[in-house]
Design goal:
Elements: E1 2-6, E2 27-28, E3 31-32, H1 33-43, E4 48-53, H2 57-64, E5 73-78, H3 84-91, E6 101-105, E7 108-110, H4 114-123, E8 128-134, E9 142-146, E10 152-157, E11 168-176, H5 178-181, H6 192-202, E12 207-211, E13 216-218, H7 222-233, E14 251-252, E15 257-258, E16 265-267, E17 272-273, E18 278-285, E19 290-291, E20 296-302, E21 307-308, E22 313-315, E23 318-319, E24 324-325, E25 330-331, E26 336-337
Bound molecules: guanosine-5'-diphosphate-alpha-D-mannose (GDD) and magnesium ion.
């Protein structure tokens, strides 16, 4: 089976970090986010992957190449103008060989059992199956109502609270039969969620939901980007919790306090933690960072090449890459601080 990943979004809710690095390549516990999705695909025997790019395509090509180093066959399908989630799929139709396609949003970490999902899709003889999950605030997502048989009755993208009748949402993973793609008009911006799904439902096509109860998060906001780190570091996901890096040029000074209670800490290659620094809770520090003397960090993410000044205090925030934080600075909850970045309008990309 072929997988297709939608990675063309601008990632506006994750600015400033996405000004230079597109969301699917942002590091999550020091690995590009897409690597987590690739590992799930490989686990289920999928090695043929089409990447639908629009924003910063060259950054993806440089980072991932043809995929051989990752044990995959990666092909790219670029939109010079973003075509929307449906338009992106249509644009890639010629690469999909008329098979069932697994399509994924490129910003979701989902412990989905792809094999079971496919089995259910076949059993239902579905035209389209949508993986579903349950969340506390469904208004941020596509809300799906199903019959007891699993057949989808209604799909409402980002409803308001008064429209809500379910907390079950589109988890951003689909199985498509090729016939469904022929319903998408070519060459126009087209949304799966706002146009194709409602249209298919009106035509009484066979749309089924598949509820997967495992870990799920959309990393698309700064808050969720921090949260995915905390979840991985606290072992709440099936995705590798890595311990304190060893033998990678990490230097730890005198009387450094590492962790407290159940916290866990990851330090990237070449990072230096100076004397008397205190790292507590869940912390991820990238490569070649410096944590100053007596600095204190709790539940935060520090991206590559960042210097945290002596005595600075950071709590529940994301900083970097390449940021210099002055001595004794205080960065509290919700801070999202990046270095100089270049946001260009689409016409210049
Ligand atoms: N190639 C391409 N072209 N990709 C796109 C485009 C486009 O024009 N627009 C968005 N994408 C990609 C994004 O990069 C992202 O990986 C994915 O499509 C979803 O876009 P988001 O912008 O992250 O959408 P969302 O999070 O608001 O909502 C979507 O995901 C939810 C689950 O996380 C919807 O599918 C919701 O229904 C769903 O519940
Ligand atoms: Mg999203």
């Amino acid at each position: 089976m072929i997988a297709l990943i939608l990675i063309g979004g601008l990632g506006t809710r994750l600015r400033p970090f996405t000004c230079d690095i597109p969301k699917p390549l942002l590091p999550v516990v020091n690995r590009p986010f897409l690597e987590y999705q690739f590992s799930i695909l490989k686990k289920h025997g999928i090695r043929d992957v089409v990447l639908c790019t629009s924003y910063k395509p060259e950054v993806f090509r440089k980072a991932l190449g043809d995929g051989r180093a990752l044990g995959l066959r990666l092909r790219y399908c670029h939109e010079t103008r973003p075509m929307g989630t449906g338009g992106a799929l249509k644009n890639a139709q010629h690469l999909l060989a008329g098979e069932t396609v697994l399509a994924l949003n490129g910003d979701v970490l989902n412990a989905l059992d792809v094999t079971a999902f496919l089995k259910q899709h076949r059993k239902n003889q579905a035209d389209l199956s949508i993986a579903l999950t349950r969340v506390k605030d469904p208004t941020l997502y596509g809300v799906v109502e199903t019959a007891p048989s699993g057949r989808i009755r209604k799909f409402v993208e980002k409803p308001s609270w008064d429209e809500l009748e379910s907390n079950t949402i589109n988890a951003g993973a689909y199985l498509f039969e090729p016939s469904v793609l022929s319903r998408v008009p070519p060459g126009v911006n087209y949304s799966l969620e706002r146009s194709l799904f409602p249209q298919l439902l009106a035509e009484r096509a066979r749309l089924f939901g598949y509820v997967s109860g495992g870990y799920w998060i959309d990393i698309g906001t700064v808050e969720k980007y921090l949260q995915v780190h905390l979840d991985i570091l606290s072992g709440q996901t099936p995705f590798g919790k890595k311990g304190l890096s060893k033998g990678t040029g990490v230097k730890i000074g005198r009387d450094v306090t590492m962790g407290r209670g159940t916290g866990s800490i990851v330090l990237g290659r070449g990072t230096v933690v100076k004397d008397f620094a205190r790292l507590s809770g869940h912390i991820c520090v990238g490569q070649r960072c410096e944590i100053g003397k007596g600095a204190s960090l709790e539940d935060c993410v520090v991206l590559d090449g960042t210097h945290v000044g002596d005595g600075a205090r950071l709590e529940r925030c994301v900083v970097g890459p390449g940021v210099r934080i002055g001595a004794h600075a205080v960065l509290g909850r919700g801070v999202a601080l990046a270095g100089d970045s270049q946001v260009k309008p689409y016409s210049q990309l």
